[in-house]
Every structure is written in C-alpha cells, then in structure tokens.
C-alpha cells in the first residue's frame, strides 16, 4: 500500500509541476502516472550508474553536478513517455528542482507516517 501511495503522490507532484512550468507539457494525469513509473525506474537503475561514473566531476563541483544528472534523467524520461514534453535542458533542470520540492511537501503532508 505504501508503494501505491508514494506512486500516486509522485504522480500528483509531476502533474502540479508540469502545470506550474510553461516549458513542460503533460497531456493528462494518466501520463503523469506513467511518467512517475518511468522516472522511478530510471532513478533506480540508470541514475546510480551515472552517479558512479561521474563521481570525480561530482566531487570537484561539490555535488552540484548532481543537478545536471537529475535534469538529464528528466530528459531521458521525456523521451520514453508519450505525452511528456520538455522544451530543453534548463526546463528539465527547473522541473527536477521544483518536482523535488513539491514531492517533498506532498510526502510530508500525505505520506505514510508509519516508518
């Protein structure tokens, strides 16, 4: 049940973020559900490998390169999800930042409190 709750909250966060940012276009909430699954899979499989490969650059930039990696993961997800359009790298970067804030707020308000 916890996984489904997190998935729904992440989908709502994606939908709200796409609504707020004009550089991101999302067809409907079903697309947000699919995007949440794709972003979750990318963050679970691809992102750790990329973080490991870019560890020296990340170390030199004091972790700021992680923002670039997050933006690239958003662009990769947009390639796989029909109905999710990101106009460029900077919109993807802003999307990942705003998405993290909104998802954090939603998780703190409605997430499962039993840890």
Explain the overall architecture.
The structure is a single chain. The chain has helices at 2-20, 29-53, 55-60, 65-80, 89-110; strands at residues 24-26, 84-86. With 115 residues, it is mainly alpha-helical. The chain has one domain (2-110). The chain has a two-stranded antiparallel sheet with strand order 1-2. The longest helix is centred in the middle third of the chain and has 25 residues, at 29-53. The radius of gyration is 14 Å and the shape is globular.
Task: Tell me the domain tally.
Answer: 1
Largest beta sheet: what is the strand line-up?
1-2
- Give the helix level as a range of percent: over 70%
Biggest beta sheet summary:
2 strands, antiparallel
Quick recap:
The chain has one domain (2-110).
Describe how the helices and strands are arranged.
Blueprint: H1 2-20, E1 24-26, H2 29-53, H3 55-60, H4 65-80, E2 84-86, H5 89-110
Antiparallel strand pairs: 1-2
Characteristics of this structure?
mainly alpha, two-stranded antiparallel sheet, 5 helices, globular
């Amino acid at each position: 049940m916890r996984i489904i709750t997190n998935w729904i909250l992440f989908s709502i966060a994606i939908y709200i973020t796409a609504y707020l940012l004009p550089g991101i276009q999302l067809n409907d909430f079903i697309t947000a559900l699919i995007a949440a699954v794709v972003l979750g899979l990318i963050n679970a499989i691809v992102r750790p490998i990329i973080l490991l490969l870019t560890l020296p650059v990340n170390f030199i930039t004091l972790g700021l390169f992680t923002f670039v990696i997050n933006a690239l993961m958003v662009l990769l997800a947009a390639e796989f999800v029909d109905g999710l359009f990101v106009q460029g790298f900077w919109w993807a970067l802003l999307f990942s930042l705003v998405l993290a804030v909104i998802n954090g707020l939603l998780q703190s308000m409605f997430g499962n409190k039993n840890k």
